[in-house]
Amino acid sequence: MKRRIRVIALLLVVMMAFTMFAGCKKKGDTDQGQVEPPKTDGDKDGQSPVEPPKVSKVQGVTDTEIIIGNTAAVSGNFAFVGVPFNAAINAVIKQVNEAGGIGGRKIVFKTYDDEFTAAKGITLTEKLVEEDKIFALVGHFGTPTVGATVDYIQEYGIPMVYAATGINALYFEKALGNPVMAVQPIYKTDGRIMAARAFHEALFGENQDQKLAADAKIGVLYTNDDAGNSILEGIKAQAEKDGRGANLIIEAVAEGTYSTAVQKLKDAGVAVIIASMNQAPFKETMVALNDAGLEAPVFTSYVNADPTAIDPSKYSVKRPVYANAWVDVLSDKGKADAQGFVAAIANADLKDEEKQNYYTNSFATAGYIAATVFVEGLKRVDAAGEELNWDNYIKAMEQGPISIPMGGTVDFSEGKRWGIDTMSLLKYEPGKDGGAASFTIARPLESLTVIEAK
Fold this sequence. Notes:
Blueprint lengths: L1 H13 L50 E8 L6 H20 L7 E8 L4 H14 L4 E6 L1 H14 L3 E5 L15 E2 L5 H14 L17 E5 L3 H16 L6 E5 L5 H11 L3 E5 L2 H14 L5 E3 L20 E5 L6 H15 L5 H7 L3 H23 L5 H8 L4 E2 L5 E2 L11 E8 L8 E10 H5 L2
Parallel strand pairs: 1-2, 1-3, 3-4, 4-5, 6-7, 6-8, 8-9, 9-10
Antiparallel strand pairs: 10-13, 11-12, 13-14
Helix pairs in contact: 1-9, 2-11, 3-4, 5-6, 7-8, 11-12
């Protein structure tokens, strides 16, 4: 067992990004029902567009049960994401129920297949809330459904814990009592942290031990879609805060334009490149940088912390590639959390083959985190001896930071609603002697405030 845990921990390092949950798509896929996130203005408070309910409300709670639910893609192109995600949620629920539940109540999980479409996601979310009368949405799944239902969730007031996407529609500040409680890093936060790393870390120069010069030109390549624009918003906000806004040289990329955009950055003499995009365009960008001979260091989102995003034959040590990450399996806590995850999957009602696959599956890991964070709120209400209703649950979640399994913390106190803002920095390492490429930790989990202070 110990050997298996060590292997699992090492494999989990490779998939720290939880890439699919950025709302990415495979090349050739269409944006079915894609909902564009609302824009926020730099660092201004992204207030909730809908006031949360003022009165206490509860449903889905009986003397013996707490009913929760989600919609998720468990068929079609995204089934490989939704199936393990929900399997891990069920694994956590089984553990909790076998231990006696929460306050003597067992958790019941209802889920429907939305096939990763907004239209079905809206209909099925309303069914869960208004017909099934669930207490909370847990692991609200995917960009289309989440983006289409954020306003509805706030209007109804039902708690939503963990959104499997990072769209900026989930970003709020000073929204005390807001039922939307995202855990996964919001794209804007992701963009701010990747920019802060580039601006404040000593990662430049021949020995990669110098900081970026104050007057250095900063190249930004972005895709004009939900992921690219949302991350770009964070990059701009951080650049303005650090007094580097005038140094940004921003170019959009799309099919057939990568070479032109990269050449513009090369001609401008940029000292660093920040890539605001998901996996498919990032691969294209890395090829274009290589073809142009532009060897400035590259910083990118946690969604791209996958070794397969870079062709080793087109990688140059003079162009180091860094990516954010929000998972930790190397510290003592991280290793212990990984063992807890493995134990939950081992105890789940799954076939042995499924268990073996899920032990190292990033989407199962994300489902485990979603359910664990939700359960923490239930435990807080129970420990306080309070009635389990929506107001008390949200208040309990806002009491203070919540530890993320295999990660840092998420803090909903004082109305903060921007997900995890503690991330590590990974560096791409090409495989040696025919070995596989990987990402290694260049900087530990740190908050944006800590990074800015460097």
